[in-house]
Amino acid sequence: MDKKAINQARALYYGLFSSLFAFVLEDERFRGVKETIELLNKNPLDENSKKALSNMLSIINTVGLKILESEYDAIFYDLSSDPVPTTASFYEEERDDGKKRAIMVNYVLQSKYRRDDKKFTDLEDDIGFIFSFMQKLILDEANGDEKASFLEREIFRNVLNEFVDEFIENVYMHENSAFYQEVALLLKVFIEFERVYLGINKPKETIKPIKEKEVFISDAEAKRRLENKRKKSEEVVECVLEEGGDVEDEV
Q: From CA 30, how far away is CA 149, in angstroms rounded?
């Protein structure tokens, strides 16, 4: 098994999902997405992932990258169509900024990276941030960083693995999903691969108590998302996972 090649591919997948799910304030928010999909399509994980990647390329070639932005906003920010929650805390507690964020903050503090809240407005347990952070850790692991290898495994086991299946289902089933249905299918295949590669089992399904009214998004989260959209129209800020600084790097 060529571990280096596998980690390079894993980093590509996490980078793609980061680009597709992270909220960033920039005009070309999906730049590089098509090229990454084309690259992954040359060596897909299986037939299901090949079909999803091919369909994603077909949509982009037909209607362009602009459709990604409008569909993304409709799925995750349109308050009239039950926006899909994106934080691990919400899936565990039905509120943002909960226990899972505290866990993720602890993992980030154990690394050489920090979240740059001026560039990356989402919280540490937001799925877009998790994907970005995982990509960076995998690249560090490829350079012999054993601590990075430990952290990526712990993050997958204790955070991402716990809510990603429900997240995938929500994205796939959303009324505005078309391109993102294919993304959800691709993510499902990749997560199954990750579980095998990392030796981590899928969590047991739990039955959630039935409530009189289903709450999809908290008032605080709704306010934050609306504020992000307002900022988006006023400025362009680049969200990156970068190295730099004498003491710590910003995510």
A: 28
What Rg value do the Cα atoms of the chain yield, rounded? 17
- CATH annotation of 3-250: 1.10.3480.10
pLDDT for 37-46, tens place per residue? 999 999 999 9
Q: Cβ atoms within 10 A of the Cβ of 182, count?
A: 22
The domains of the chain are located at: 3-250
- The predicted pLDDT at position 115 comes to 83
- Closest of 127, 74, 123, 120 to residue 96, by C-alpha: 123
Q: What is the pTM of this model?
A: 0.83
Q: What is the DSSP string of 162-219?
A: HHHHHHHHHHHH-TT-SHHHHHHHHHHHHHHHHHHHHT-PPPPP-PPPP-SS---S-H
Cα–Cα distance, 232 to 133 (Å, whole number):
23
* Structure-block tokens of residue 246: 């004498």
Strand partners, 191: none
Residue 222 binned pLDDT confidence (cut-offs 50, 70, 90): low
Length reported for the chain? 251
Position 227 pLDDT exceeds 70: no
Q: Which long-range contacts (CB under 8 A, 24 or more apart) does 196-203 make?
A: 197/6, 197/10, 198/153, 198/156, 198/157, 200/153, 200/156, 200/157, 200/161, 202/161, 202/165, 203/161, 203/162, 203/165
Residue 113 is encoded by which pair of tokens? Answer: 């990276």
CA dist 20 and 141 (Å) reads: 23
